[in-house]
Batch of 2 targets.
Target 1
Amino acid sequence: MAKFCKNCGAELNENQKVCLKCGAMVDDEVKPAEVDSGSVGWGFLGFFIPIVGIILYFVWKSSKPRSAKQAGRGALVSICISIFSSILYAILTATVLVGSAGGF
Ligand SMILES: [Zn+2]
C-alpha cells in the first residue's frame, strides 16, 4: 500500500517519517480512533447521574474531549439545578417558618 505526502502529494516509502520532497512530517497510519461522538446522550447521562458524568469527564478529558465535555456539562447543569433548588427550598422553608412565627 503506497502512501502519499499530504502536503505535496509525493509518493512515500512505507516507513518514511518525513517527506523527502517537501520535508513535511508524514502522519502515522490512521489509528482506529476511539469514537468521540460528543453525543448529547452523554450530557443526559451526566445530568441524571452527575457523579458518573464527572468521572467520565476526567477519564475522557484527553482521549475523548468532545464526549467528556458533554458528560461534564450535563453533570454541571444537574449540580447547578440541585444547588439552586436546595437554596430555593431553604428560602421557602425559612419564609414559611418566619411567616408562621410572626403570624402568631
Ligand atoms: Zn511532501
Target 2
Amino acid sequence: MSADKGKAPANSSTTALPYELPWVEKYRPKILDDIVGNGETIERLKVIAKDGNCPHIIISGMPGIGKTTSVHCLAHQLLGDAYKEGVLELNASDERGIDVVRNKIKTFAQKKVTLPPGRHKIVILDEADSMTPGAQQSLRRIMELYANTTRFAYACNMSNKIIEPIQSRCAILRYAKLKDAELLKRLLEICEMEDVKYNDDGLTALIFTAEGDMRQAINNLQSTHSGFGFVSADNVFKVCDQPHPVTVQAMISACIKGDIDQSMEKLNELWNQGYSAVDIVVTVFRVVKTFDEIPEYTKLEYIKEIGFTHMRILEGVGTLIQLGGLMARLCKMNLKPELFKI
Ligand SMILES: Nc1ncnc2c1ncn2[C@@H]1O[C@H](COP(=O)(O)OP(=O)(O)OP(=O)(O)O)[C@@H](O)[C@H]1O
Ligand SMILES: [Mg+2]
C-alpha cells in the first residue's frame, strides 16, 4: 500500500487523490487567523507575528486545541521563506536528552542565518513536558546566552512539568478548551468543504463526545463520514463507541423519579453492551452536568455522588454493583424520607 502513496491510480482519469489525508492534517490552520478559539491569546500572537520581537513563549493546554498549530503558524508568519533555515523543531519523537541540548540546540543557536530584519531564529520544543528536568536545566544558560539571536517556543500539556527557571524566562500562554460554538464553527466549515451530509443532532453528538478537543471532533467527523456516509447522532456514537447519552439520560430520569427498577434496567443494558464502568460513569457525569430537568440543588448532590463513585472505580472497583449502588443513591435522594420509616 505504501508503494502507491501519493500516486494516482493508473486507470483513473479523475484528479481525486487515491488516498485521503486525515482531515486534521488537511485542515490544519496555516495562518494564525484560521485558528479558532482562545481569541485574546491568539491576538497576542498576531501582534508578535506583526512586530517581530518574539519573546520566549510557553503555550500550555489540553490536547488537540491548537498549540502545535499556533507555534508553527507563528514561526511561519515571522520568518516566511526563511522558515527552513531559521527554525529548529524538536518534539517528543526526537531524542532530547542533555546531549542533544548541548550539541544540536547549541549549534543551531550559534549558527549564522540571514533572516528578515528584526527577526530571530526560533527553536520549537513541542511536547516539552516530556523533556527530562536535566535537559531542561541545560537550556537555562543557552536561552540567556543566545537570546539576542534565538528565541524558544515551548508547547506542552502541563506547564508544571516545565522547570520553574524556564517558566520565569518565558511568557506563558494558557490555552483553554475550545467552546462548543467554536468547535461547531470549524466543523461546519469542514462539512461544507468536504460535502458531508449531516443533521444537527449529529454535530451536537460530535461536540458532546469531543469535549473541547478539536482534533477529536474532526477525527470523529471523518470516521463517521467515511464509515456511514451520514453524520447523525446514532452513527457518531457507534463510531466513538461511547455509551449513548440518550440511554444515560433515560437512566438519570428514572433516578429523578425514584424508579430504581427502570434505572437498573438501563444500566444493565449499557453494561451488556460491554461498556466499562469508567465509560459509564464519565458519561453519566457529562449528561448530568448539562441535564436541564434536574433542579440545581439535586444536580450538585448528584455530581458529588458521581465523583465518589468515579474515585472508587479508579481505585479498582469497577463492578456493576458499584454502579448499581450509585443508581440507588441517586434514586434515594428523590424519595420522601417518610418512606424510609418503619
Ligand atoms: N483552535 C483550532 N482551530 C482550528 N483547528 C484546530 C484547532 N485546534 C486544533 N485544531 C485541529 O486539530 C489538529 C491538531 O491540533 P494541534 O496539533 O495544534 O494540537 P495540540 O494542541 O498541539 O495538541 P497536543 O497537545 O496533543 O500536541 C490540527 O491539525 C487542526 O486540524
Ligand atoms: Mg502538539
